[in-house]
Design a protein that fits this description.
Blueprint: H1 2-28, E1 36-41, E2 54-60, H2 84-100, E3 106-113, H3 124-131, E4 136-148, E5 157-167, E6 173-178, E7 195-203, E8 207-215, H4 223-241, E9 245-251, E10 284-286, E11 294-295, E12 308-309, E13 312-316, E14 320-327, E15 340-346
Parallel strand pairs: 2-3, 8-9
Antiparallel strand pairs: 1-6, 2-15, 3-5, 4-5, 6-7, 7-8, 9-13, 10-13, 11-12, 14-15
Helix pairs in contact: 2-3
Length: about 350
């Protein structure tokens, strides 16, 4: 009996030692991005002239690993990742869809993996870059960890992922802005470091078009999301007051205030988080109410049973006119989100967007 107690104590001590060692290692290697990171700056990118409208798409592609067959442990499911063949198939179909829509002027993507176990270390940005040669692609890393230890029975492991903005013409400046707030230690070691990605374009009259790709927090108590959107609001109001034109789009992980669904799919009121009513009052919210843009991942997708929501949309400054918006219903085949397209134009501006070959980044 003494030997059993001795060996048990030694085993527990070793486990505790290695666990503490792992926490120290994770703390030392934690991703600490700077508050503002300039990804690109061009001295003379040119001015946009003489065109009436612009087109944009936003889509959280779920790192090509959250197709209709998947559940996910963070949503109450069991799985950590899909099979490699399914992941590759999803990425191929996502790429084909984007390629078929390469006449768009801008593309916002979220959850694009660069080197992650969950997507078999496929560099998804490189793959998509090859399919979209007309575009310049800029990525803002928002998830980087050497080893995510959950779930214990099948850990996520290494993750490197982010948001990407593709644009078919030169931006004057591209910046990653860190959102305020974070989860407490040690959870902060293994969770996303949220950000928004801003591209700026010169307009006539020394004004600018400020284009923002956002992916806001999820799985928090709501307080992080409030901090993020209040910081975003303060920033974009300042830009609008300068006379600039601002468009924000992406995966907000929140539903527009006062949203009422007009679709037959089950609406997820359990996990529902509304944007505050005071958020960007007087600005234009562009979203689809007759089709869901996101689905719950507790179980594989079932049209009749799966809870759905609308959390992928756009917000435009008052000097931007929304011409049309549509959701492409892919039945969540390749991602737990659906792509949303927008056509817009600038008020009192005659602006031409010239689509051409990507600029030389050297």
């Amino acid at each position: 009996m003494k030997k059993i107690i001795k060996y048990t104590s030694i085993s527990i001590g070793l486990l505790l030692f290695f666990f503490l060692l792992f926490l120290v290692y994770s703390t030392l290697t934690e991703f600490h991005p700077q508050k503002n990171i300039i990804l690109k700056k061009k001295v003379n990118p040119g001015i946009l002239n003489d065109m009436l409208s612009f087109s944009i798409l936003t889509w959280n592609i779920g790192y090509a690993g959250l197709g209709a067959n998947m559940d996910f442990f963070y949503d109450g499911g069991k799985k950590t990742r899909d099979s490699k063949s399914n992941t590759e198939h999803n990425l191929k179909e996502i790429g084909a869809f984007l390629k078929s829509n390469d006449t768009l002027n801008f593309i916002f993507l979220q959850e694009v993996d660069l080197a992650s176990k969950r997507s078999y270390f496929i560099n998804e940005k490189n793959y998509l870059d090859l399919l979209l040669p007309k575009f310049n692609g800029y990525s803002g890393i928002n998830y980087q960890a050497e080893f995510v230890p959950v779930p214990v029975n099948d850990p996520m492991g290494k993750v490197k992922s982010g948001i990407i903005t593709y644009t078919s013409f030169p931006a004057s400046k591209v910046t990653r802005f860190a959102y305020p707030g974070s989860f407490s230690w040690p959870k902060s070691l293994f969770i996303l470091k949220r950000c928004f990605l801003e591209c700026r374009f010169n307009l006539p009259g020394k004004k600018e078009f400020v284009l923002i790709n956002t992916h806001n927090s999820a799985f928090d108590d709501g307080s992080l999301r409030v901090q993020e959107i209040m910081a975003l609001q303060a920033y974009v109001i300042q830009e609008y007051e300068k006379g600039n034109f601002v468009l924000i789009g992406g995966d907000w992980n929140q539903t527009p205030a006062g949203f009422a669904p007009h679709f037959t799919e089950p609406f997820d009121t359990t996990n529902l988080v509304f944007l505050p009513k005071v958020f960007l009052t007087g600005w234009k919210f562009a979203f689809i109410s007759d089709k869901p843009s996101n689905r719950n991942l507790k179980k594989p997708y079932d049209l009749q049973k799966t809870l759905t929501s609308v959390i992928d949309f756009y917000v435009a400054s008052p000097n931007i006119e929304i011409a049309s918006i549509k959701l492409i219903d892919l039945q969540f085949q390749y991602s737990d989100h659906q792509p949303v397209m927008l056509i817009f134009k600038f008020k009192k501006c005659n602006i031409l967007l010239k689509t051409g070959s990507p600029e030389n980044e050297d």
